[in-house]
Design a protein that fits this description.
Length: 229
């Protein structure tokens, strides 16, 4: 029988990094643009600040994702090496551990023992990685993938408010940057929900609310403490 179910779990690694990058690109750049614009700065100053935000943010996202996900990968690899050594040293104890895991999941002891025996004969380390450590190929840490996804999507997200800065006059900039950025964030929420199979409304509302809050606070700080350039 052909398997017709289409699950989304395999997308969680790159999807998390991509949504985080695009969201940060839109919110941080739009917020910075609004904060600088609120001081009465010139269009050139606003644009320079926005471009600096794009470059610095993309590099920061890439470095941060690579370092953090590499740390996760290091921990996973250390656990796998430890498990491999334990399998070589005491396979009977490892078999008993795997059997106990399956019993706790609802199998009777004989069936659990048979399942553990067959899975360990096929791929002992893979079985323990998946069922004892919670590490699978689908959810394994991928530092380069996460770094590239975050940096690329941050830059793409940051470009959107910058295009508004380029195309519109300074006098109307704040309203258009804020409004268009909220629209971009809503679209991002829809795309992320669609890709991940989540609720469209919840995803869109969550992304839009926090983006609006960040932009509002930054614009308020700029207006309160800014000095016209």
């Amino acid at each position: 029988m052909r398997h017709t179910e289409r699950h989304k779990t395999h997308r969680t690694g790159w999807l998390r990094a991509a949504v985080l990058g695009a969201n940060d690109g839109i919110v941080s750049t739009a917020s910075l643009v609004l904060g600088v614009a609120a001081t009465g700065a010139s269009a050139k100053s606003i644009l320079v600040a926005g471009v600096a935000s794009l470059v610095a943010g993309a590099m920061s996202m890439a470095a941060g994702e690579y370092v953090s996900v590499s740390s996760q990968a290091d921990t996973e690899n250390a656990d796998l090496a430890r498990e491999k050594a334990e399998l070589a040293k005491d396979p009977e104890q490892e078999h008993a551990e795997l059997t106990a895991i399956y019993v706790n999941r609802g199998l009777d002891e004989n069936l659990a023992s048979n399942v553990a025996t067959q899975l360990m004969a096929h791929d002992a380390l893979g079985a323990h990685a998946r069922d004892e450590l919670g590490i699978s190929e689908t959810l394994a840490a991928k530092p380069v993938q996460a770094a590239l996804a975050s940096a690329t999507t941050f830059a793409a997200g940051a470009l959107l408010p910058l295009l508004v800065v380029l195309l519109l006059p300074t006098a109307t900039l704040m309203w258009y940057v804020a409004g268009s950025s909220l629209l971009f964030l809503a679209l991002l929420g829809l795309i992320a929900a669609k890709a991940g199979g989540a609720s469209l409304f919840v995803s869109t509302a969550r992304v839009t609310f926090w983006g609006a809050l960040a932009m509002g606070l930054t614009a308020g700080v700029g207006a309160l403490f800014g000095v016209a350039a």
